[in-house]
Amino acid sequence: MKRLPLVLALLAVLVPSPAPVRATSMLRAVRHRVLQGPSYKPGEVIVKFATATSQGLTERAIQEAGGQRARRAIAGEHYLVTLDAGVSVEDALARFQAMREVEYAEPNGIVRASFNPNDTYFRFQWNFRAIGAERSWDIQKGKASVGVAVIDTGIAYEDFGPYRRAPDWGDRVFLQGFDFVNGDSHANDDDSHGTHVASTIGEATDNAEGVAGLAFDCALMPVKVLDGDGFGSFFDVAQGVDYATNFEQGGQRPIKVINMSLGGESASETLRRSIDRAVAAGIVVVAAAGNDGQGTVNYPAAFPSVIAVGAVDLRKVKTGYSNFGSALDFVAPGGDIDRDDDGDGDPDGILQQTFDPFTAHLTGRYNDFAYFYFDGTSQATPHVSAAAAMLISQGITDPQAVRAALELSAEDLGPPGRDDSYGHGLIKPADALKGLGFSQ
Q1: N or C: where does the chain have the smaller number of CB atoms within 10 Å of the terminal CB?
Q2: Residue 361, class by beta-carbon neighbours within 10 Å (0-12 exposed, 13-18 middle, 19+ buried)?
Q3: Contact predicate 80/71, CB 8 Å
Q4: Within its chain, how far is the Cα of 414 from the centroid?
Q5: Is 93 left (phi over 0), alpha (psi -120 to 50) or beta?
Q6: Backbone angles phi, psi at 130, to 5 degrees
């Protein structure tokens, strides 16, 4: 496995050699059964009585509607009413709704634990299970009004010249991006890295195809600042950050999260100031800690206003390549394609769609799409960006509040409390969402 070195002031994209899904894995795909069942519990209704309704009147109303017993909720005048045998839910609702003292009555609807997407290869996405993605999706899947700018090598988002749109985007909303390498408005990927990163955030999900994305209802913006070899400059990255920050559509500024799966060893005042402007505008900025295995976090992740992300493997152990240090904020699954700790016969990388970079570089065409395992802090970073987008979709709009929610809910790894190897720990989006009281 080879990771690109850093060269002087250039920002090197943190991309290792990819490993495609093996044909034998594809042949093992199975379909999930769709379970059918009632939409509400038979023999139960929920009734909300008007405030200050007397206990006697409440009891009499329940009896007249056919209630056998009732259990009061811990807040408000809500009751779960169990009906007498022979009284249908429909009849009881009609009786309750005709009473002046009843604000409303409704069936006791059934919920199903954990949205479980039917994407063909979702079972290989151990990374999403590690952070509790299915519990997160029960609360929030993202919103199209929340945009995530992927400042990278571009995204395979359109059919244009030799470029093709990746097949597993579904109806994904793409905001107008920009290519700062070539100076045009077509921010297409000519490396494969940016597409893979963006897919972790927003690949089409529950469409019986490929794999899933984490914040799959959010919008994506391709911003190309790295060339086909994965290199770029601080100036272009700063330009990309400012572009995403100032982008307007319909009188709104939709970008709420910036993902930078890139890094360099030296600081840049130009880049720092552009990032500070983004955060001041209410944007959460997330960046990769670096793949050098050293005790210093790369820039821009090392800037105080940026959320710095390191990588863990399937065992939730810090990977040997992941940078660490006092600037590290969180870890997320980055994988290790040299390991197979779950014994499924495939490497423990992060599986997402992209095109074959080797075929593309040989032919100059970017249309050989498949599902590839990559590893690196580049792959860990979009997990955190997606979690931030979910929190923002849920109503947490301040970048510091997003950071605090992730800190308070992270799974502590290593020594108790924050440490330089794991930061505040492994992100747990569902706990972040629920911990703030937003569980609807």
Answers
A1: C
A2: middle
A3: yes
A4: 24
A5: alpha
A6: -65, -30
The whole-number pLDDT of residue 76 equals 58
Answer left, alpha or beta for residue 133, where phi above 0 means left and psi between -120 and 50 means alpha: alpha
Q: Could you tell me what percentage of the chain is helix, strand and coil, using 3-state DSSP and rounding each to the nearest 5? A: 25, 25, 50
> Do the Cβ atoms of 308 and 283 come closer than 8 Å?
no
Determine the Cα–Cα distance for residues 15 and 73; give it in Å rounded to an integer.
52
Q: How far apart are CA 240 and CA 309, in angstroms?
A: 20
Place of tokens 């947490």: 396
Q: Do 18 and 355 touch, CB atoms closer than 8 A?
A: no
DSSP conformation class of 336: B
Tell me the two tokens of residue 264.
């360099």
Task: Check: CB of residue 32 under 8 Å from CB of residue 116.
Answer: yes
| Alpha-carbon distances, residue 358 vs 18, 157, 251, 299 (angstroms) | 10, 19, 42, 28
pLDDT means per 10 residues, the chain with 440 residues, are: 27 44 28 40 87 88 93 73 92 94 80 65 95 94 97 97 96 96 96 95 95 97 92 85 96 97 86 93 97 94 97 97 97 94 91 91 92 93 98 95 96 96 97 63
At 179 the three-state DSSP class reads: strand
Residue 423 to residue 421: CA distance in whole angstroms: 6
Using alpha carbons, select from 113, 110, 147 the residue that is nearest to residue 132. 113
Between strands 178-179 and 219-224, the pairing is: parallel
> Cα separation of 32 and 114, whole Å?
14
Q: Which DSSP category does 410 fall into?
A: P
CA 419 centroid distance within chain? 24
DSSP helix/strand/coil, 138: coil
300 preceded by a cis bond (ω within 30 of 0): yes
Question: Burial, 208: exposed, middle or buried (Cβ in 10 Å; 0-12, 13-18, 19+)?
Answer: exposed
Nearest to 208 by CA among 322, 109, 118: 118
Tell me which DSSP letter residue 384 carries.
H
Query: Catalytic residue positions?
Result: 152, 193, 378
Looking at residue 331, its amino acid is V
